[in-house]
Specification:
heterodimer; A: MetI-like fold; B: 12 helices
């Protein structure tokens, strides 16, 4: 096979019209995913933490947010922010920013779950020890629990980044010129070499996702799996060994979930 | 329009759930088989389909698949009026099956060795071992992640609007462009998605309660 049309377009696939125009192609996918993760990180952390709260008026809204966003297809969210945000704001926003906002809203719900899993994964003793040594709950959270939770969250965050990266392809529907859209444009220009342009798109996604998901797997091996979202009671025995000892082992008496810190 | 959309969405969801379960099971068995080629093929399948977005596969089956089919089958497919739906089913199936097979494989790894040994010693052959002993346990042990996957798959049916399959999201866009009543239609559709996802989740929770076996627990106990 030869890709005459595609190799001359390789810059278009990777960068879009970058030096002369807006960023596009594969780079835009990466930018979208990184921006969405960065914007949603704080909101996700807050949501995840408030989901663990014992107070109903804090917990219920965050649970509602998380569940509703997670039950809505991403396309629906993107449409909401693309078509109906201008009504609310009274002015137009660009396609790119509406995509970023929708993706951030979407990512926040998933990150909240990752964050919750991370906090729950830190042994309870850590919080208790911090409190007994005279720290306030805020200090204990900031200096003791949160850094450890962050470390546990890293593999899940990386694999979430992969899935978010794949989800950025959906933004082509509102006309963001990212990799899929680029492929479609090129294939329409050269209808006789359609397969080549789609192959380029596939390779682009594959390289990024493959390397990232392998990074996630490596990190998982190093740090240990902990993800309540994909909590697998079927984890194989070797994984049990890798797992931090505080992992929910069925024989252990586990306090009722939902409140953090338990008993306080 | 909305009603047709809902019908097509549910149809897509139902068909792809079943087909992706079947395909996923086949791939999972390939990945845990003893034959190296099958194992390699299964791994390649999973890596390819997991690392490229589902949207791409949906588009691929709509635009490219008819082109590469030999003997003019592609032209026949293109002439078929419901081809968008068929392409959507194929795209979603291959995408979802890769995840399903990964989940099922982890379920197989969790089954204690004793089960297989017991099956062998009671005289079952390879196929019977899978049908009567291993597969039921694999499905039952992996119910929670499988359920999450199926809800994801349901949400992914909205990707088929990219290839003009007349499902719910596409219907709302049509209504928006024809009547400018987009907000109402989109609200309806969002409510429907959230509602049906909730129903699916609760069905899965009930199923879990009825069917779930805690393999991790038994494995843990056998280890002492």
């Amino acid at each position: 096979m030869d890709f005459p049309g595609s190799f001359s377009n390789i810059k278009f696939y990777l960068l879009g019209a970058y030096p002369n125009g807006p960023v596009g192609g594969l780079l835009l996918n990466i930018v979208l995913a990184i921006l969405a993760i960065a914007f949603s990180f704080l909101v996700g952390a807050l949501l995840g933490y408030s989901r663990l709260s014992c107070r109903k008026y804090i917990k219920v809204p965050s649970v509602l947010y998380i569940e509703i966003v997670r039950a809505t297809p991403l396309i629906m969210l993107i449409f909401w922010f693309y078509f109906f945000l201008p009504y609310v704001l009274g002015k137009n926003i660009s396609v790119f920013w509406s995509a970023v906002i929708a993706l951030s809203i979407y990512a926040a719900a998933y990150e909240a779950e990752i964050f919750r899993a991370g906090i729950l994964a830190v042994p309870r003793g850590q919080m208790e020890a911090a409190l007994t040594s005279g720290m306030t709950r805020y200090q204990a959270m900031k200096f003791i629990v949160f850094p450890q939770a962050l470390k546990i969250m890293v593999p899940s965050l990386v694999s979430f980044f992969v899935s978010l990266f794949k989800d950025t392809s959906v933004t082509f529907i509102i006309g963001v010129i990212e990799l899929t859209q680029t492929g479609i444009i090129v294939s329409q220009r050269q209808p006789d070499k359609m397969y080549a342009s789609y192959l380029c798109v596939a390779i682009g996604y594959f390289i990024v996702c493959f390397s990232m998901s392998h990074l996630a797997r490596m990190l998982e091996k190093k740090i240990g799996v902990f993800d309540l979202e994909s909590y697998r009671p079927d984890a194989c025995r070797d994984e049990y060994m890798l797992m931090p000892t505080h992992r929910k082992i069925p024989d252990e008496k586990v306090p009722a979930a939902g409140c953090y810190p338990p008993g306080l | 329009m909305i009603i047709t959309g809902i019908k097509i969405t549910i149809l897509l969801m139902a068909i792809t759930s079943v087909t992706s379960l079947l395909l996923g099971t086949v791939v999972a068995i390939m990945r845990i088989s003893r034959i190296k080629i099958l194992r390699a093929l299964g791994t390649i399948y999973v890596e390819i389909f997991r690392n490229i977005p589902g949207l791409f596969w949906v588009i691929f089956f709509y635009f490219i698949f008819p082109e590469i089919l030999p003997f003019g089958w592609g032209a026949r497919l293109n002439a078929y009026p419901n081809y968008p739906v068929v392409a959507g089913v194929m795209g979603l199936t291959v995408d979802n099956a890769s995840y399903v097979s990964d989940i099922l494989r982890s379920g197989r790894l969790a089954i204690p060795h004793g089960q297989r040994e017991a099956a062998i010693s009671s005289g079952l052959n390879r196929v019977q071992q899978y049908i009567y002993v291993l597969l039921p346990q694999m499905f039952r042990a992996t119910l929670p992640p499988l359920g999450t996957r199926m809800v994801h798959n349901f949400k992914n049916t909205s990707l088929c609007m990219a290839i003009t399959a007349p499902e719910l999201t596409w219907a709302t866009q049509q209504i928006e462009s024809l009547t400018f009543r987009g907000i109402e239609a989109t609200t309806m559709a969002t409510l429907f998605y959230v509602g049906l996802a909730g129903v699916m989740a609760s069905i899965i929770i009930i199923l879990e309660k009825v069917l779930r076996i805690d393999i991790a627990k038994s494995a843990y106990q056998t280890r002492g």
